[in-house]
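User: I'm preparing a small set of examples for a lab meeting where we compare how different chains pack in three dimensions. I only have the primary sequence for this one, and I'd like the structure in token form so I can line it up with the others. Please keep the answer compact; I'll paste it straight into my notes.
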Amino acid sequence: MNSFDDLSEPLDRRLAAGLARLAAVARQLDWQAAEAFGLSPTQADILRLLTRRPEGVRLAVAAAHAGVRSATASDAVGALERKELVRKEADPGDGRAVVLKATPAGQTLAGQWPASFEPAVAGLDEGQQATLLRLVVEMIRHLLAQRLIAPQRTCVSCRFFRENVRPGEAEPHACALVGMNMADRHLRVDCPEHEPVAA
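Assistant: Understood. Below is the structure token output for the 199-residue chain.
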């Protein structure tokens, strides 16, 4: 007699298919939210990034984050500037370069739409959410190692993160910046205090 494994697609393919469906729904929700505020999906992606980076980012970083070419990001930024949601300022580290920053109006607008995956994670209990967060951070780490994703300000790529320094305990990790222990539920995907691990 065959096992059910013999009747199923490989686990990794089923998981990838499920994640693709979730991503499609999330993207659709993002597009609907952006459209409701008169933004394109790329404009919304860039504006959301800038609201999380008050220090500003260069155009190349915004393009990499949105997964578009620099010319496309430049067009999106131009539209956001005309809508007075984004402004350009001189880069304090290089007077010849500029950084993009969200204006107060941009901050307000971006704060009005929900994260697209909220409906998906809302049905999970806190323990499941913590497990999923740990897995998401691990997937980001894997993508970073393969250089398939723009640099992220996540714990696992931060010089202050001490992973599994207390194995088997409720808070096995530590953050050397704040001097506190951490559980998986404390992992950050976009930490404002992030400093990359030296190459």
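A couple of notes for your slides: Residues 135 and 184 are 9 Å apart (CA to CA). Residues 11-36 form the longest helix (26 residues).

User: Perfect, thanks.
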